[in-house]
Every structure is written in structure tokens, then in C-alpha cells.
Amino acid sequence: MKALVFHGPGESAWEDVADPGLQDATDAIVRVDTTTICGTDLHILKGDVPEVPPGTVLGHEAVGEVVEIGSDVRTVRPGDRVLVSCITACGRCRFCRDGAYGQCLGGGGWILGHLINGAQAEYVRVPHADLSVHLLPGAVDSKDAVLLADIFPTAYEVGVLNGCVRPGDTVAVVGAGPIGLAAIVAAQLYSPERIIAVDLAPTRLDAAKRLGADAVVDAMEEPELLVADLTEGLGADVVVEAVGVPESFEACLRMVRPGGRVANVGVHGKPVTLHLEELWIKNVTITTGLVDTYSTPILLRMMAAGRLPGSSLVTHIFQLEQMEEAYDVFSRAADTGAIKVVLGGQPHDVVSVRAA
């Protein structure tokens, strides 16, 4: 099969690799119809995630058709159309039993495109398939559904829920890339008073306004001053960090009010200075987290009901064999206006769905 293979920092190629096969009785093999590129994939290519070994097929988000299952798989069967989650869960370890699937001790967690071959390929092996793939309603389009593999549950769980967004809050989202935009969408479920989006790219700030941000500001124009002006000097109740660089994290700490919450979502490849000499007296709560995807079934129902604007985040669509072109476009978002790129997206029969 063809797949996007990581060969070390700055090096990758769409090339021939061996087809995946069943290795454990809990595995499923999925033929990939639709996949996408995540900011984390760019971090891997930059060398920010050194545990990814050269030779790994990248990607951790997909929609496809189950073509083979192990003898212990009970919830899906060949022919089922499924969402492949970015997180794999054994369902048995201490963390999985607490719903903290991202910390799975039984061979799960974030492994696809990280510790094992991933989903930017024509086929992918999914371990622990019973808890790691989700049957898709026929009415949900593949290019919408693939956004539920990572960005929507990440924004919802690690940004909005960890940040404890409440009615009447002022929420600042620093970084209006795919995760930040999904956080803007998800925050609106909790009726904040206002949402402020911060980014460097005018196209992304325009997208933030389209998706519900009440105010936008260029990251180079001291956004903390706008936040202070809109909150009578208090600062934001919740600040979501969705970039993953020291400057953006420190900007979040300048925007948050005493007693407020900073929810870090960004993937950081460099150390960040934590100014405890200023923060210790302010009662600020800082959270970090890898998504657990426990919310995926809820978000899937909301998308099926038309309550999540999935494809409105998609700016570019490619075929699978255009993977390298898609990476180039996504990595130059400031020039190309890319927000979320989708590869594939085969049509499906909306009535060929079996009961769960």
C-alpha cells in the first residue's frame, strides 16, 4: 500500500510500505477513505516529538471501512463504516476504567502515527478496536466525521471542559488554527458572555469571526490590552492556549484574571518559563492534557443533529495520493489560508447503516 512515512526531522515521503495485518485478537484493519493532517504531525516533522521513530507511518485521524477483525472484536464487523479515534483504549487498565484513555497503560493512548504506524495510508491497523473505532451514522459525511477523530474532542475536553467555561465567562482563545477554532465552537455550548480570538493570520481571524468569536485581535498588537478593555481591567475568565510556543503561553498568563483558568492545548516542543513570582498570589489554575476522547460519542450525536459545523473548518480537499502536496499547503497556512485539509472523502450510501 501507499503511506506517508516519517524518515526523521524534515523528511517524509508518500511511498510503498507493507500492508498492515492483524497482530492481536482485538485488532481491526480499516481501509482509509478519509484522513487529515494535524498540527501535531507538523511538530513530529520538526523533531518536537522525538519518540516517533523513523520509518513510522504518520497520522492519527481517519474514517474508513472495516475490512478485517480479530477474533475478540465484538462491536464492529467487516463492511462497517467507522471513525478511527486518535486515542486507542484497552478498556481494562486503571486509567481506562477512569475514562482517561489518553493515559492507557494497556498498549493504548496516543499510539497511531506516534508509536505504531498511523492512518495517513490506504489501510491502518487499529488495536483495541472495540473502544477505538466508532460506528458512523450514514447521514454524517466523511469530511465532517474525520474532525471528530481529534480536533473537536481535543478542543472540547482539553480546552473547554478543562478550562471550566461557564455561562457569562469571557473566553480568550490564543491560536485560531483548527484546534482553536474548534474551541471557539465548543465554548459556545456553555453560553460565555464573549469569546476573543487571537492569531497572527488575518484569514484565521476571519474564520474565528465566522465561527462565533465576538472579537478578534492580531497577536502582535498586545491582545492583553483588548482583553483588559473588554473586561473592565479584570482579564479573561478562561484562556485557551492552542499554539504550543513559549510566547503564546506567556501571553495567556498576561490575559487571565486572578482566579481564572488557563487551559493549555498546544503541543510544546520547547521549555516555557512559568512566572510563579507573579502568579503565586493570583489563584490562577493552569491545566494541561492529552485528549481522552471520552466525549466522541456525544460529539458524534451532536454532529449528526447538525449542532457542530464540521466541514466549515475544511479549506482544502485532496486525494490520498496528493499527501505531500497537502502537507505543503497545510504547513504554509499563513500563505495558503489553510485551516483544515482533508484527504479522500469517498461518497457513501446513507442508508447502509446497521444498528449499534
UniProtKB/TrEMBL annotation:
The keyword Zinc applies. InterPro entries: ADH-like_C (IPR013149), ADH-like_N (IPR013154), ADH_Zn_CS (IPR002328), ER (IPR020843), GroES-like_sf (IPR011032), NAD(P)-bd_dom_sf (IPR036291). Pfam families: ADH_N, ADH_zinc_N. Keywords: Metal-binding, Oxidoreductase, Zinc. SUPFAM superfamilies: GroES-like, NAD(P)-binding Rossmann-fold domains. Gene3D superfamilies: Medium-chain alcohol dehydrogenases, catalytic domain (3.90.180.10), NAD(P)-binding Rossmann-like Domain (3.40.50.720). Belongs to the zinc-containing alcohol dehydrogenase family. The lineage of its organism: Bacteria, Bacillati, Actinomycetota, Actinomycetes, Kitasatosporales. Residues 8-343 form the Enoyl reductase (ER) domain. Its cofactor is Zn(2+). PROSITE patterns: ADH_ZINC. The keyword Oxidoreductase applies. It comes from the Bacteria. One of its GO terms (molecular function) is zinc ion binding. This is Zinc-dependent alcohol dehydrogenase family protein.
